[in-house]
Amino acid sequence: MKKNLLKYSLVVLGLALGTIGTAHGLAFGHGSPEVDPSLAISALTLLGGTLAVLRVRRGK
Amino acid sequence: MDSDSVSTGDNCSQSAPFFALPRHLLGRLYLFGALAAFDYLACFAGRGAVAGRLKIFGLQTVTYADIPLFAFVVFLALGHSKWKAQQEDIPFGRILFCCHLLCMAAVLYITLVAQKELGWQLYDPFSYTKSALYILGAVLLALACVPLRCWLGAIHSTGLLWLYASFAGVAGWCLSSPIRFLWNADGTALGVTMQTVAFHVVRAVLGVFRQDIVYDPATFTMSTPRIESTILAGCTGLEGLGLILLFTSIWLWYFRKEYRFPRALLLVPGALACIWLLNIARLCGYVLIGDAFGSDIAEIGFHARAGWISFTIVALGFSMLAQKLIWVRRIPAAVSYPAGQPGSGALNTVAGASEESSEFRGESPAIRPYLIPFLAILAATFVSKASSGYFEWLYPLRFFVAAIVLWHFWPELKKINWRFGWLGPVAGVVVFLVWIAPTLWAHRYASSRLGTDLAALSPTARWAWIAFRVAAAVVTVPIAEELAFRGYLARRIISRDFDGVSFTSLTALSVGVSSLAFGLMHGEHWIVGTLAGLAYAGVLRWRGRMGDAVVAHAVSNLLLAAWVLGLGDWAQW
Predict the structure, then answer these.
(1) Which of B279, B312, B321, B383 to mutate to test binding with chain A, by most A CBs within 10 Å of its CB?
(2) What is the pLDDT of residue B478?
(3) Does A44 reside within a domain?
(4) What is the number of other CB atoms lying within 10 angstroms of the CB of residue B3?
(5) Across the A/B interface, how many CB contacts are shorter than 8 Å?
(6) How far apart are CA B252 and CA B519, in angstroms?
(7) Number of compact structural domains in chain A
(8) Among the residues of B183-302, which ranges form H helices?
(9) Which segments of B348-483 does DSSP mark as H helices, in order?
């Protein structure tokens, strides 16, 4: 039960706070350049790709 | 890097139907989620949708969509492992799906009629009809993708998960409003506190470098002879804190079997502290760079990209530390080794066990030559643009970095089939025509400062910049992007061991997703970018040779370069 509670709490926390990213773009009149979608996509692609490379199997 | 870890992609004889729906429960749930999201975007979030009209039975969909969205994501995420084991083939309801399409077509028709001709009232019959049709369409879609008995089985097999997911949906919805409010925190107690702390820390740091900066604590403004900067509430690191919290939460949850809890959670505040400190460095850098090189570089280049660079550094640092730090990693009770593997039958050390545990879940070693050239270009782009104002004077860096990385991996890459036939150039010409079609249709070029900025350079600098721009577009970019999107991503969607998947075995899903990802990398040109990706992937699947896709891409870019240079349509670059 303790394990499940931690799991669910983490997911809910992550999802709720994840709305920050989208909320930033939806916020009233906030025109930060970080919201530029192509910039965000480039950064997340760079991060995701690098993480994939870092998790390469050590040997076959 | 294993010497034989790069497959040519055309040496495998396995084949798969080009278009095949997922057959099992988990895949169908993903399919339902994707199609439902598409329906929502098509019906409510398109260009024609106007704020205040996005209502279902009078409820704002933008606000309340959070509830089913969060609930479904939590339901899917937490039930994932349970449903993954279910390998029963389930039928797809074609008739129900067609009825769903009719409902959605009717919703779109009513939307267009209501908006353009009849006007829109919240409680008019069109609103209720549209709402009822949308709900009906969603239900039909759910039943088409997953039959009712399978839905009931999925809910039954996961106990009270549906209840947890519902609570999560409501909790996410409840929290989303105050969180959105944070981004408009100027003048609020929280915003002022964050501004005050950031302002004084930045002031202390800048004091080490410069003594002539004028500070105004009342307005959180710092002034130098060349630049004036105000720390707004939104600039105090909230975005970075939120993104890092999201990233670390998802990371620790996704790899939860690898970590010890709750001690692994201690990494999270460390990551949050790092991103906040890097934001302070960004604010200091903004002032110093703006004063040294002008506000263009500080504002246009550095300001936005430094934030994303900081996020990437902290996220990578967190994930690497979480993988290396034995103290937070779980000791597997027993690591099963394939027969004959070193370590079989022996009691392993913590480090050895952790490495072996992750070894069997990791990516194929062949990923490196396929992905690193493209990642190098992305990293170089961030550095180049962060160092530039409107004009990206450091563009040649992208070419050099890509060329060096491709050269480094060439011993592996040369095993790929780079031959090509007539189809590649023909596809390239077609993609070019599609790319410029919107411009031809509009009979005017979009505005761009690039031509003016280039004209301000000396002739030598101008032509050198253009030469590197064309060389990158025609040589390094096509190779790196085709390797990443078609060579890796399109095949990785099919199998974790992507290098064992033949190019001729690409499926509609893998082609579609990789092409969409490719298109999204092209900013405002994302639609034609996606079409271009489909064309290159189609050429690759048809001929089974990477060379054809690369040549198609190179021809498109070459013709586009000729168009830009010949007609001065600089916005295309």
Answers:
(1) B312
(2) 95
(3) yes
(4) 8
(5) 185
(6) 30
(7) 1
(8) 189-209, 238-254, 267-293, 295-296
(9) 350-359, 367-386, 396-413, 423-442, 450-455, 459-471, 477-481
Residues of the domain holding A20: 2-54
Q: Which residue among B172, B315, B362 places its CB closest to the CB of A12?
A: B172
**In chain B, what are the domain boundaries?**
25-182, 189-330, 367-572
Closest by alpha carbon to B216, among B199, B234, B193? B199
Average pLDDT for B154-158: 87
Which residues of chain B make contact with A16, given a CB cutoff of 8 A?
70, 171-172, 175-176, 179
A45, A51, A54 member nearest B378 (Cβ): A45
Which pLDDT score, from 0 to 100, does residue A5 have?
Answer: 57
User: What is the SS3 string spanning B208-238?
Assistant: HHCCCCEEECCCCEEECCCCEEECCHHHCCH
Contacts of B167 in chain A (CB under 8 A): 12
Give the tens place of pLDDT for each residue, B387-402: 888 888 889 999 999 9
Residues 6+ apart with CB under 8 A from B318: B244, B247, B248, B251, B267, B270, B271
pTM, full prediction? 0.75
Please state, in angstroms and rounded to a whole number, the distance separating the CA atoms of residues B53 and B127. Answer: 9
Residue A43 lies in a domain: yes
Q: Token pair for residue B290?
A: 């703006």
Whole-angstrom Cα Rg for chain A? 17
Token pair listed for B9? 């992609």
Chain A: closest CA distance from residue B422 (Å): 32
Q: Is residue A33 part of a domain?
A: yes
B375–A50: do the CB atoms touch at under 8 Å?
yes
Which residue in chain A has the smallest CA separation from B359?
A: A57
What are the tokens at B435? 């790319």
Which tokens is B287 given? 């002032």
Q: For residue A12, which residues of chain B lie inside 8 Å, CB to CB?
A: 70, 74, 167-168, 171-172
Residue B466: predicted pLDDT: 93
CA-based nearest distance B86→chain A, Å: 22
Show residues of chain A in contact with B359, CB under 8 Å: 57-59
Q: What is the mean pLDDT of residues B283-301?
A: 87
Residue A60 lies in a domain: no
- The answer to whether the Cβ–Cβ distance between A33 and B303 falls below 8 Å is yes
